[in-house]
Amino acid sequence: MDQFVDRLEELDRLQTLYESDAAELAIIYGRRQIGKSELVRRSIADRHDAVYYQAVQGTATTQLRRFVEAAATTFPGITGVKVEWEPLLTHLVDRDAIIVIDEFPYLVEPNEGLPSVIQHLWDTAVDESQATLVLTGSAIGMIHTHVLDGGAPLYGRVSQTPHGRLELTQLPFRSIKTFVPTYDPEQRVFVYGVFGGTPRYLSPLDPSRDFGENITQLLYDPDGPLHDEPETVLQMELSEVNTYYSVLESMASGNRSRDEIAQGAGIESTNTSYYFNRLETLRIIETHHPALADPARSKRTRYRIRDPVFRFYFRYLYGRRGQYELYGEDAYEDLIEPELPDFVSETFESLCHNAVPALFTDYQLTQVPSQWWYQGREVDVVAPTDGSTLIAGEAKFTNTPLGYDVLADLEDDVEHIDWTPTGGSEPTNEFALFSRSGFKSSVEEAADERDDLRLFDLSDIVAVLESGVNE
Which domains does the chain have, with CATH numbers? Predict the structure, then answer.
C-alpha cells in the first residue's frame, strides 16, 4: 500500500515554516517506522528549493560527500564549496533553501560537534535568510541531548510560531479504515488492537484477506515481514537486549507493577529503573497512574507496552516457535485466536476513553478519561467534570452481552473512589457501560428506567472516533 495517511496537521505546520519570511528550524522525532521520512518527503514533493539528505551510519568524510551529492541536484554550485559542514550549510542558507536532514543522529555519531556548528550558524548567519532546516531522528534520547534538553546546543532555536517541534506518534484509530476499507467496525478495532497505528505495520495489511490470515502472514509466519520486528528494533537501539526481552515478556504476560514485572523477568526490582527508563525513552513502554491521582505523588504506578505489535510478539511469539510447530497449521486457531478478544480489550478500553468527551457533550471534563484502581478494585473509565458529576464506566470486549453483574460491581467500586468536586459539593455519578456484544435485557431495562446510566455499543464508539471528534 503506497499512500500518505493522516499527518495533515504536521504537513500544514511544515508548509507554514517553509513559507515563512524568516529562517526556521524544525525537529521531527519519534520511534522507528512511525512515518517521519514519508512526512518530510511529502512536505517537499513539489518544491524546487529543497535538499533532502537521508543520513546513514558512516564516517564523517563519507557523510559530507554524500550530503554534497544530494544537495548538488538542487544547488549545483555547492560542489565548489569547502567540504565542511559550516560552509556547506551557510551556502544553502544564503540561498533560502529548505534543508531536510533525515536521521540527524547518524551525522552526530562521527561528528559530535555538528549541533554546535548549527547553533553557531543559527545565531550568527540567518538574520537575512528565509531558509528552513528540518532535522529528523529516531534515536529519541540523542535528539533530546542535542536539540531539546536545556543544555543542548540547539535548545531554544526550534521555531515557535508555528511550533517546529513535532513528535510523531501512532496514527489515530480513524486512520485504520484507510488501510482496511472492507473491514467492518469490529474488525477495525481488532486491527488497531494488534497492529496499532504505526504506518509501517499497517501498510502490508491485505484487506482482501480476513484478519486471521493477515496475522498469520505478517506476524505469525517466521518469514512474515513483521515477525521479528520487535527484536530488530530493540537490537538496533539497545545493548543487553536479553534483559529487555525478559522485561517485555513479563509485561506482555499481564504483570503491571514494578515488582510484578521484575519478578516475572527474573531481575531485582531495584534494578528495573535503568531498563524501564530506556524503554520509555524509545516510546516502547509507558507509565500510567490511577485516574484522579497526582502522578508526582502516586505510588500506584503501572507500566504497559505502548505498541500492540510488541505486546503481541512478546505474549504469543517470543520463544514459542517450537510449541507452534507442534500444532502445525492449526496453531493460530488453537492458541492465538481464542485469546484475541482478551488481548484487544486493553485497546478497546483506550478507545472508550477517547470517545467519552464526544459521548458526554453535556459535561465539561476536567481530566482526560482514564482507569482507576485501588486495593484490588478497578474502574475502567473515570472522568471528573467541572460540576459535581463523576463519570464512571466499564468496558467489556467479550463475545457475550454485558450483564447486570457488571453494573452492580461498578456501582460498588465507585463508592470507593475518593473525589471531591471543585466546589466542595457532594459528588454524583453518571454511569456508562461500553460493550462489544451488546447488553442483556436486564441492563437495557435499567437504562430505560434510570437517567444516570448510558449504554454504548461498539458501533457508537467507532462512529464517534472515525468522525475525528476528540481523538
Answer: 8-167 (3.40.50.300), 175-340 (1.10.10.10), 343-466 (3.40.1350.10)
What nine digits make up the cell of 425? Answer: 459539593
Q: Characterize 216-234 residue by residue with b for buried, 16 or more Cβ atoms within 10 angstroms of its Cβ, and e for exposed.
A: bbbbbeeebebbebbbebb
Residue entry with cell 457488571: 406
CA 191 to chain centre: 15
Alpha-carbon dihedral sign for residues 115, 119, 125, 126: positive
254-304 per-position pLDDT tens digit: 999 999 999 999 999 888 999 999 999 888 999 999 999 988 888 899 999
CA torsion, ordered 281, 381, 257, 344, to nearest 10 deg: -70
128 CB-near residues (< 8 Å, 6+ apart): none
> 443 near 174, Cβ under 8 Å?
no
CA pseudo-torsion sign 53, 58, 61, 65? negative
How far apart CA 382 and CA 361 sit, in angstroms, is: 15
The pair phi, psi for residue 265, each rounded to 5°, is -90, -10
